[in-house]
Design brief:
This protein is of the alpha+beta class and 347 residues long. It has 11 helices and 10 strands. The chain is globular.
Length: 347
């Protein structure tokens, strides 16, 4: 079912928006349904949460953005309803509003200067989190558990044998599993508060292309910094974007992004964390390939571009192929990338 072109009236009214309100669908996100809502000078980002989240996630976002704002970091603070609540429950789902930050979203990184700004913005975000002690109200265990995602893909192949894309997904899954077996074991590393999804479309930039804010904070959690950066770098260093079925990993963007992170975060990373970034980037690409391949059969998790693809399955199949190609590209450059990471993060 296509999403409604406008949020329900009761949802708008919960934040005091009336008949003269404009609501523009935002298309950059893959999970939550999002709108830019404006009435006169008032404007917010209004979102209907995907069922994988629940309203408790807003408590975590409120606490962490309060901490960041107190440290001078631009961040999308939650906007409470007229009754002081962080969310509004409606028949269509759980809704929340966030302070609107007027910035530009990029679909891909095509220059070293932009890659450097991605890194600097992420580094500043993480520097701002230092010293925060937080017990999360909402948790999604196993979000970056590759074995769990491979098992999920295997179950989908068993359950959806009649799906038209089954043969294509089966062939792709064989390649994904083979690539996963070549990964080195993940080293033991400390856990920190991480964003959990620092892809390029979750970063906002000002008109001068300076990093402005990190957005889409539902995935905040305790996690590993090599995984945090790996997830970011597989996005930032793929100039063809997530829909490129023949993706290549750009080492120059990788170097620029890590140098930018060092500028923003200083010496935040431990040597062991820095040493693990390259293999984590490959691991995350394989993980995401498995998740996209699974949804090419289940067709229920990720959004899709109806203008360019005939189905959610077709879009996810292309994404999965792209992430697998990206993992192969990283694997082929592993020694070079490890040297770049060592130099950039120690510089």
């Amino acid at each position: 079912m296509a999403p409604s072109p406008r949020p329900p009236t009761a949802v708008l009214a919960a934040w005091g928006f009336g008949p003269g309100t404009t609501a523009t669908r935002l298309t950059s996100g893959l999970i939550n349904l999002s709108y830019h809502v404006q009435e006169g000078p008032r404007q917010v980002a209004l979102q209907r949460l995907h069922p994988i989240f629940d309203a408790r996630v807003n408590l975590d976002i409120d606490a962490i953005t309060s901490h960041l704002e107190a440290r001078g970091i631009c961040t999308p603070r939650p906007v409470r309803t007229r009754h002081g609540e962080l969310s509004f429950e409606e028949q269509s789902g759980s809704w929340r509003a966030l302070r609107w930050i007027d910035g530009r979203v990029h679909e891909r990184v095509e220059s070293e200067s932009l890659a450097g700004e991605c890194g600097r913005l992420a580094g500043r975000f993480h520097a701002g989190l230092q010293g925060l002690v937080h017990v999360f109200e909402f948790r999604r265990p196993g979000a970056h558990d590759l074995t769990r995602h491979l098992d999920g893909l295997s179950r989908a192949l068993s359950e959806f044998r009649a799906h038209p894309a089954h043969a294509a997904v089966h062939d792709l899954a064989t390649q994904i599993v083979a690539r996963a077996t070549e990964l080195p074991p993940a080293p033991p590393l400390p856990r920190r508060i991480v964003h959990g999804d620092l892809k390029i479309t979750n970063l906002l930039f000002d008109p001068a292309e300076r990093g402005l804010a990190v957005i889409d904070l539902d995935t905040l959690a305790h996690g590993r910094m090599d995984v945090e950066l790996g997830d970011a770098l597989r996005s930032w260093c793929n100039p063809g974007g997530e829909d490129d079925a023949h993706a290549l990993f750009d080492a120059k963007l990788f170097a620029a992004a890590l140098s930018g992170f060092r500028r923003g975060a200083g010496g935040l990373l431990l040597p062991a964390e820095a040493a693990a970034v390259t293999s984590a980037t490959e691991r995350i690409s394989i993980e995401l390939a498995s998740r996209f391949a699974r949804d090419a059969l289940e067709e229920r998790r990720f959004g899709w571009d109806r203008r360019r693809f005939e189905s959610r399955s077709a879009h996810n199949l292309q994404r999965a192929r792209g992430q697998l190609c990206l993992a192969a590209s990283i694997h082929g450059q592993r020694a070079t990338l490890e040297a770049i990471a060592r130099d950039a993060l120690a510089g």
